Amino acid sequence: MTTTAIRDIPEDHLDQALDLIHLVHHLAPAAPTRYYHRELLASCIRVGAYEDGRLVGLAAAHHHELSVPGGELPCAALDFVSVAPTHRRRGLLTAMLDALWPRCAAAGMPLAALWASQSAIYGRYGFAPATETDRIEIDATRPLDLRIAPDPRPLRLIDPAAAPALLTPLYEESRTRRAGRFRRTERRWRFETLRLETADAGADEFGPTRVVVLGAPGETPGGYAVYRTRGGEEGGGAPGAVQVRELEADGAPAAAALWSYLASIDLTGTVRAGARPADDPLLQLAADRDQVRVTGTVPSLWLRLTDLPAALTARSWAAPVDLVLDVRDDRLPTHARRFRLTAGPDGAACTPTTAAPDLTLDARDLAACYLGGARLSPLVRDGLATAHTPGAARRLDAALETEWLPFTGEDY
């Protein structure tokens, strides 16, 4: 019988790994994109499944910094997960992930994250959606009707190539408000956010990336928007559209100015934003909610705690809490035990204990609530968690609460 070996993928196997990734995910990227994928994979922790010396599966993790309540933490961003179509349903994914987590923990990453292409798979590995995004559409056939006056500072278009240096401070400030956001390198700004090096960027009929900022030259920008436009069809067909990739503002008036600008671009009739926070201020600013509509809400970043005590003690806490948590975790035996969590605005401690539990819950549910985007009380109500002490889930919810909901607006 042929055996499969799980081991690290050396650098001289990167092209073989890329061929497998592109096969499994039905990709045929242009040369610049393949080169970018190779660069990313080279910097990852990589685990492969080998059969007779041939790579038939792989899982990799980037080392990212993810904003969490009160700060940021190193995060193992799972990516490039691929199993050859000839080797599915043999337990290779489980074996590779079981080998990957100890490597990530040894690298000092107490969190793991992913974007789930098949959401039914990852719950059993301890992952759960920790952030949600709204899709928003604005009827731009008339001026945007808002409840407040827009910021009067001037708006100006800038060269996208100059955007990373100018916009990074404002983006970083936004990460201190909202958990779930990744730190960006200039390379990531250029390739992922601005799409300056993607050869097929115009394949969807939208034009090149545009960047508008709020504030005069030499001033610290009060906000910015990254967007693209598409013209309307001739002969009275579909109107033109604005596609918003990202919008950041230092307050509601600045946001009002940017949204008003996007909704006033000539020869367009619709503004669409594919990923906005569930508590986006625009939804409160809009005077006419028929003009600003949420067209869908979807899970975005999935999270797993790979070092539970380190993750819980590193975030900030909104209220005092002292509970014994009985955690169920089928994949990480070090987590399948009881922990005493003592936390509050001045810090936290999380240590193993044999004391009677106040709350029994799955590791995946603790991950879902970790960034402040979900509550545990409904899980107790619905029988997915058990409160042995009355009010335990409500007290933990109060301690986990954040002023702003977490948000992850882009893939990594």
TrEMBL record:
Pfam families listed in its UniProt record: Acetyltransf_17 (PF17668), Acetyltransf_9 (PF13527), SCP2_2 (PF13530)
One MF annotation (Gene Ontology) recorded for this entry: aminoglycoside N-acetyltransferase activity
Keyword Acyltransferase annotated: yes
Keywords from the UniProt entry: Acyltransferase, Transferase
Catalytic residues of the enzyme: Y122 (proton donor), Y412 (proton acceptor)
Residues at which acetyl-CoA binds: V81, S82, V83, R89, R90, G91, L92, L93, T94
InterPro entries (UniProt xref): Acetyltransf_17 (IPR041380), Acetyltransferase_Eis (IPR051554), Acyl_CoA_acyltransferase (IPR016181), Eis_dom (IPR025559), GNAT_dom (IPR000182), NAcTrfase_Eis (IPR022902), SCP2_sterol-bd_dom_sf (IPR036527)
Gene Ontology biological process terms from the UniProt entry: aminoglycoside antibiotic catabolic process
Record SUPFAM superfamilies: Acyl-CoA N-acyltransferases (Nat) (SSF55729), SCP-like (SSF55718)
Superkingdom per UniProt: Bacteria
CDD domains: NAT_SF (cd04301)
The keyword Transferase appears for this protein: yes
HAMAP family in alphabetical order: Eis (MF_01812)
Family per similarity comment: Belongs to the acetyltransferase Eis family.
Assembly, per entry: Homohexamer; trimer of dimers.
NCBIfam families: PRK01346.1-4 (NF002367)
Identification of the protein by name: Acetyltransferase
Species: Streptomyces natalensis ATCC 27448
Taxonomy of the source species: Bacteria, Bacillati, Actinomycetota, Actinomycetes, Kitasatosporales
